[in-house]
Amino acid sequence: MIVANMAAAEFGKLTSTQNLIQLAFSLIRIVFAMARAGITLDKLVEAGAQLADETGFEHLTGAALARHFDVKLASLYSHVPSFDDLKSRIALFALKELADRATDALAGRTAKDALTALANVYRDYAREHPGRFAAARHPVSAERAAASAGGQLVRMTSAVLRSYAIPEAEQTHAIRLLGGFFMGYVTLESAGGFAHSAPASDASWSRSLDALDVMLRHWPAAA
Description:
WHG domain-containing protein; transcription regulation; DNA binding; Tet_transcr_reg_TetR-rel_C_sf; HTH_TetR
């Protein structure tokens, strides 16, 4: 019985060792596959953003990314712990692109000129990169959100509002209003919501910005 138990134990050790060896070889193959494909974390995020534009962010899959790089799905997870983590990184990537565009567009502009420039940044980005625009609304952790370019967008919107002399205590309300208009109008427009009746969407966009300008110039006092 003792000999049998010892043999069983040794067999278990051998099996465990073999499993470790197989795992090691699998990891080596994955590393070499990633190296051949030239995959880095940055390239993975950029490719994910590109595919999101082509297929829609909601339809983006790890399998599609693996096919893009011609590697097995498991190879992708040597860079990210999960697919949701990758989607969060794509969201942060999109926010950074959006914020960079806004920074350039707002330089030297104030009031209606700045409002129009900021609004057009959102609209143009959604038209050029529909998948990334959708990704920018993907929820991320509070820690990541605090460190993201989303804060930069809020600060730039605040700068636009200061040129309208919106009181500091009222700016959060105004920021939410503008964000709701930018995101809401562009999302409905992208879905074809304004394509079936006159006037053209461009005309309504322009008139809506005129109305926002008037409202911001005559912001109501807090009750």
